Amino acid sequence: MTTMPFRIQTLNNISRQGLERFPRERFEVGADVERPDAVLVRSADMHKLTIADSVLAIGRAGAGTNNIPVAAMSKRGIPVFNAPGANANAVKELVLAGALLAARNICQAWAYTRALTGDDRELEEKVEQGKKKFVGFELPGRTLGVVGLGAIGVEVANAAAALRMKVLGYDPQITVQRAWQLSSAVEQALSLDDLCARADLISLHVPLIDATRGLINAARIRVMKKGAVLLNFSRAPIVDEAAIIAALDGGKLAAYICDFPTSGNKDHPRIIALPHLGASTHEAEENCAIMVIDTLKDYLESGNIRNSVNFPETVMPRVNGTSRITIANENVPNMVGQISTCLATANLNIADLLNKSRGDVAYTVIDTDAPIGDEVLGKIRTIGGVLAARIV
Questions:
Q1: Which domains does the chain have, with CATH numbers?
Q2: What is the secondary structure of 180-212 as a DSSP string?
């Protein structure tokens, strides 16, 4: 059982506005905290770290969790929280900026202007002669294909529709919540290939998992329109960079705008590679910190789970005058039965119970009419398949 105050270790600088949501009398927070109950992280690579046995949860002040060993944490019964949607507006604005940079050849035109020499009269002549090389196109009436309709994809799709673009969306796993938020002007693509074949610009907003690695490859590029623009503000490996460069060199693609510079793309004349600016705004950093700290605090104090990437959403109002225990276990039959038997053997009556599962992991919250002792907790921990258990 964790004693107060809770100890929170920070691996990166976290927004002060977020950290202030930890009451000082109940939380000890800092980079040098020993035996932490939870870890707060932004970009630090936790794959290289030894994560203490005391850790009950990890909070990522952002959306992506590739820097966290999520699978290993699942096996230990440790939920990993993130902040989905907290940086959505920041990324949306950068995607729109990227579309405009490509449509109007702004970076190439700026580079041309900066290289000009001469007095003002000579500059004016060279500008008039050179501007013909940078003729672009306008966004209204063009078709934007949005791949992935999570928090960011929905924001991008709705903003593009407001700019009078035609918008195609593709996401076979769109949630009901996101579907309600999506503009009725957004048309559903029948498949990813259908979207690629019809879009003038394509924006990627999917997580990096095995199924999305190399999602945009040579075969998929072949079905795209000649002169299409590809925008990638998700993760670099979602596209096959060699195939992208070959398509740019061959004239199939007009431009590739991304947030992931590499030695192979940073100097290409038709690639604009930004230094991972997607969520780099003060507002996004604050929003991410506030969201993840609120969910982390609720988990530590009440056992509730929201916005976890590896555990099911499990929220149960607390019954007054009860004791609460939470159990993470392998998602196998008869776990709740064995746990209930342990409680019954100790003459503990269940006042309320909620059990949820997600993939290979299940999570149970139980309120009992009388206090749960350490002996009962110990017995539950010995049940085969139980990953973690604690009295809240």
A1: 1-87+279-311 (3.40.50.720), 88-273 (3.40.50.720), 314-392 (3.30.70.260)
A2: HHS-TTPEEPSSHHHHHHH-SEEEE----STTT
